[in-house]
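REQUEST FORM: STRUCTURE PREDICTION
Request ID: SP-0412
Submitted by: Lab K.M.
Chain count: 1
Length (residues): 74
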Amino acid sequence: MNQERRRLSATWLNTIASGVVSAGTCGSLLAYSFGTRPGVTGLQVLAIVAASILTGLLLHLAARGILGQEERDR
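STATUS: Completed
RESULT:
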């Protein structure tokens, strides 16, 4: 039972990571393609994209940590 909970928690974290990366990259780049608001630069948009990718990576690594080495080897 505990093993199944760990798998579900890892899956949930990976799903959240995918959502963060998708929203942060696609949303920001799509909004930027329609034109910027005054005071918003391309560099700021790239910073948001990089932050969302980094956040997604950290969530994914947390999920891998929850899962444990023996589950990843399967």
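NOTES: The radius of gyration is 16 Å.
Reviewed by: T.R.
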